[in-house]
Amino acid sequence: xxxxxxxxxxxxxxxxxxxxxxxxxxxxxxxxxxxxxxxxxxxxxxxxxxxxxxxxxxxxxxxxxxxxxxxxxxxxxxxxxxxxxxxxxxxxxxxxxxxxxxxxxxxxxxxxxxxxxxxxxxx
Amino acid sequence: xxxxxxxxxxxxxxxxxxxxxxxxxxxxxxxxxxxxxxxxxxxxxxxxxxxxxxxxxxxxxxxxxxxxxxxxxxxxxxxxxxxxxxxxxxxxxxxxxxxxxxxxxxxxxxxxxxxxxxxxxxxxxxxxxxxxxxxxxxxxxxxxxxxxxxxxxxxxxxxxxxxxxxxxxxxxxxxxxxxxxxxxxxxxxxxxxxxxxx
Lengths: 123, 198
Prior knowledge:
The complex is a heterodimer. Helix content of chain A is about 50%, strand content about 10%. By secondary structure, chain A is mainly α. In chain A, helix 4 crosses helix 6 and helix 5 packs across helix 6. Chain B has a seven-stranded mixed sheet, sandwiched between helices. Chain B starts with 14 loop residues before the first strand and ends with a helix. Chains A and B meet through helix 5, helix 6, strand 3 and helix 7 of A and strand 1, strand 2, strand 3, strand 4 and strand 5 of B. Strand 3 (about 95-100) of chain A pairs parallel with strand 1 of chain B.
């Protein structure tokens, strides 16, 4: 990554190194709450969108269907840390819903693993 | 950036009904990790990047602490939609072992790991095996056949790398979807067995 690109990314997140999303696992799924409106480029409410940057709006458009934080970073061509801050910003405004992150660092229980096994075999 | 809204939004706190699952695909340089992911992913593998700060680089590279650069760690990953309620991600580990902090990030909460090996370069797998052993992460070893052949058979690999008798070793062609699917099934079966006996 060039120094220039790094500085640009730093500017996007307004020099905030951490946010409420800093610890979200990189596979956390994100979906826009009012995806259909946002797909037309129409803000759901001007108040919700005040102060949002181009990158936030791109994120909301991308997340019409659930996408992981890793995918958001890849599509927006920003570092994972920057993607997390952007997700945190739109989460604060209630514009997105996330998959349950409270248990995602725990090992999976046998029931979940067995469901996964069945799903994989059915592929 | 303007200040955050002070009043809590009625919509915040809603949780999606879909759950992400992840499997780690580890292995040395050119072991075929991205090929493996590509064989079964429904999307063309994407690359996500994370930055390593100049400070961490200094620890790694003590002779050159004054260099203020940013190192980017790149990881390839793919996705499989399993059902309406679950999505499986396959994350390839960064090629160089020194990026352990990224390994921690992708291994946390993972179902388990596939250690992909090129049997001509067994030494490149020591790091991955030690890593998963130490953390008690369920893993299987997958020997990738290059040109349809293996330089060492599974028994030779097991003894050369001191892999315990309980760890499954499979032989596969990382380009072949069925072969990759079989390896993933094997890993999940092994993870279930480990959970049951834990």
